[in-house]
Amino acid sequence: MVVGCEDAMKQLRALIHEVEEPLRTTFQHVHQGHVNETLVRFLKARDWDPFKAHKMLVDCLNWRVQNEIDNILSKPIVPADLYRAVRDSQLVGLSGYSSEGLPVFAIGVGLSTFDKASVHYYVQSHIQINEYRDRVILPSASKPDRPVTTCIKVLDMTGLKLSALNHIKMLTIISSIDDLNYPEKTKTYYIVNAPYIFSACWKVVKPLLQERTRRKVQVLPGCGRDELLNIMDYSSLPHFCKREGSGSSRHSESGSENCYSLDHPFHQKLYNYIKQQARLREPVEPIKQGSFHVDFPEPPDEEVEIANSIGSELHKFENGNGV
């Protein structure tokens, strides 16, 4: 770490030391014992400006307190059929671990429809996966001399169509939540099964991204199997990367192999964990149905510009095809 970065760390550490309850308690849920790594994440997100990083972190802590994020892992989406519908339309899962020990999350960007529940359920589900990752998955992957604080994401673009225009608002909400409250949690984004429509949008979006974000994105040929095998075992590949040229499908593998499915071990453990936490908090009260509402942050200007650019590009395709 260069001298300027060390000075920024000292300043931010001193500033955050001044926070009081309840922000101090929720900060413990954020750093999970890795304070320096957490401060570095927020500093990176604000180009190593300690005062901007401090504001970002305090805003994050206030958001967590105001929306009771510390309790979200005790708020299951019930009944199970509703949660299965969410999982079938918001495709995300943990497929395994890289050779470095980083969790590998698969995301079905092209085939996610977000049409089986209200936006609040999808936001609740997304934040729960984030919190389970940060509070359970990453600590269990860490060692005393090697903390694991980031993950890898493999984004499957199979099925990406003009209908993606309908999902831009939903994706912008989720992206804004991550950028503002879970910054720098992803080491690398691998894009696979990219159709032409993605390539066209990527040309427009890439120049709008900050340099640190552009460096994280790698667009791989085809399903990316051969390239991903350089950083993980075959068993950790997402199911849609295991068969060259086969693409992805919600139903291409059995539930235990398809990491999107509620029947996959990751989602079974996650859902059982949340139900267990709910029983610990309210042992005599029945679990109530209803979404856990979270305030949606205003998307950063960069997010808005990217969303507008993607929308504009998709409209060009729409008009060009006479749809």
TrEMBL record:
Pfam family, one: CRAL_TRIO_N
Organism, as annotated: Flemingia macrophylla
Domain CRAL-TRIO: 79-238
SMART domains hit by this protein: CRAL_TRIO_N (SM01100), SEC14 (SM00516)
SUPFAM superfamilies named in the record: CRAL/TRIO domain (SSF52087), CRAL/TRIO N-terminal domain (SSF46938)
Protein name: CRAL-TRIO domain-containing protein
Gene3D superfamilies documented for this protein: CRAL-TRIO lipid binding domain, N-terminal domain of phosphatidylinositol transfer protein sec14p
